[in-house]
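Narrative of accomplishments. A recurring question from our advisory board has been how the design workflow behaves on a single, concrete structure rather than in aggregate. To address it, we present the structure tokens for one chain from the evaluation set, followed by the sequence designed for it. No filtering or post-editing was applied between the two.
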């Protein structure tokens, strides 16, 4: 009887330790969040646009191959657009235009997702790619404090 209780206590202890341990996935997620929070805004914008473009490209390929996972890639791109919207300063004329473009892209992705429209995905992929190129050019020309 004592051995049974000891085994039960040992099992409970192991389960608690396992529950307390962070999984690799959780650790990677925490690292990405901390890294994203510490990225310079321009770097974060460029990275978000790059990944959104990749996701839209993947979505178009998956849609063409009748792979049902294409909507997941669209959702990832939409989430990145929401992040970009949150980062946009709409108090300026340029920021307002950029926000309007992000909203248009998101609404088009919603429609594309509902109608399985590869053409709409391609349109937004082109817009995202153009924005990415433009922000990359701005980033390349940016003077950093250590360069002065």
């Amino acid at each position: 009887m004592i051995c049974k209780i000891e085994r039960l206590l040992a099992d409970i202890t192991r389960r608690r330790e396992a529950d307390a341990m962070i999984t690799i996935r959780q650790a990677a997620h925490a690292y990405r969040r901390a890294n994203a929070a510490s990225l310079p805004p321009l770097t974060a914008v460029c990275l978000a646009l790059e990944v959104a473009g990749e996701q839209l490209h993947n979505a178009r390929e998956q849609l063409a191959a009748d792979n049902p996972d294409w909507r997941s890639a669209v959702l990832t791109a939409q989430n990145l657009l929401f992040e970009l919207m949150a980062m946009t300063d709409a108090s300026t004329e340029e920021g307002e235009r950029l926000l309007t473009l992000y909203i248009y892209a998101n609404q088009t992705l919603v429609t594309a997702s509902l109608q399985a429209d590869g053409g709409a995905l391609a349109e937004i992929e082109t817009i995202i790619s153009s924005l990415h190129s433009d922000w990359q050019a701005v980033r390349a020309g940016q003077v950093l404090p250590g360069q002065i």
